[in-house]
User: Fold this.
Amino acid sequence: MFIKILLLVVFFGVMVYVGIYSRRHATNMNDFVLGGRAVGPWLTAFAYGTSYFSAVIFVGYAGQFGWKFGIASTWIGLGNAFLGSLLAWVVLGRRTRIMTQHLDSATMPDFFAKRFGSKALKIAASVIVFVFLIPYTASLYNGLSRLFGMAFDIDYSVCVIVMAVLTGIYVIAGGYMATAINDFIQGMIMLVGIVAIIFAVLNSQGGFLEALNKLALVTDETATTQVGAFNSFFGPDPANLLGVVILTSLGTWGLPQMVQKFYAIKSEKAVRTGTVISTAFAIIVAGGCYFLGGFGRLFSEQVDIAQGFDQIIPAMLSSLPDILIAITVILVLSASMSTLSSLVLTSSTTLTLDLIKDNVVKDMNEKKQLLITRILIVFFIVVSVILALIQYKSKVTFIAQLMGISWGALAGAFLAPFLYGLYWKGTSKIAVWVSFIAGAGIMVLNMLAPKIFPAFLQSPINAGAFAMIFGLVAVPVVSLFTKKQDKKELEGIFSCYDEQVTVPQKKSLKN
Assistant:
């Protein structure tokens, strides 16, 4: 117990120190929100990765989908690495950095307003961000409940409040730079922790090959009649597995808290280096989490699945040595705090810059913007704590469902118009509205009246994947038949890609 508490105290102390240290990088809104657009590749890559993977992944998704798909759930982690990280950086990274700086845009709603010449789009996008980031923010705490119950004799409410307060301190003090530095530290803990835990859990089952052999003998007639399905290449349910891969991988392309990492990156070299680092981080952390979860059925005697999937991973870890349990708790705290800091910073800056400024409060100077943003950070953290405690007491839903609703709505609404807006001059304002309404509408209907959907789409996961694909098809189709933006205005927006830059000859040969 002494070791566990000591590690927690050191961990929290470092987080708060970084926040205080980073205050000098948060003296104006550009620095507070984007780190002055001068953040290097390592910090940006780790900020992207740690915002991506939280307790939702480690406890909720890894447990639930490892149980459903067996070892094939590893495909979800690999999809996260190559679609959600590598391809996202290649397709979005450079263009996002160039166009958002050209448009002087600090948030995703502001990008939509300036790219498509519509203040109404900015307000609508801000409302979607505000509404749908809340369930995701609340879900971050839930993965901690069973782990803290296993490791400490501490009330879950105390754990949630302490985590929220300490996250709030360093985000309010240091803004994006404090978040990025702490994300790097937390990311290193996640890398070391997941590798150590995988080795320890597999060793408890006699090693990797023995664990695979045991998994081949597992049967569950409610899930599949196929013998050896849980250690097969694509598992017992490839169609639903594909839905999870699409939602959790492609979804990052439309999430404001993820995409805004590209706004802040420093240089071309930083984009290239960050691409490699972010992909490697995702392979280890996401691939490792889902790979670990794939062996969950070997611990079925310790799990009452009727009580929910969120207990699977804690059950797998309960017999580990105290030092590894302490590392696990720090790992999940790192994952949760890094994502929480990113979400509250995104939510508060979006609400300040895109909804309150010029709409509610006129002539808002820099000092007032910073003050309101910091107040809203406190507001979002308090709301997320209240919702997390209500959910914990009432057992409303599982972690994966909360996250699926949030990801599906945000990515369904934003992914297509953001992607096409960066690349295609023909994207119309009406097509953006269609994507906003369809993405958010599909997920609201799925939450309120799931039975109106076909059986396959009643799951929030599959509904979210459908919302994204619908947007990717609908935006270009609607754009072809609706009014285009003014040609001169478009030329000014896309001129940023044609600006000439000078590079060393080792990078580009003379004509």
Remarks:
- The mean pLDDT is 84.
- Residues 156-204 form the longest helix (49 residues).
- The radius of gyration is 22 Å.
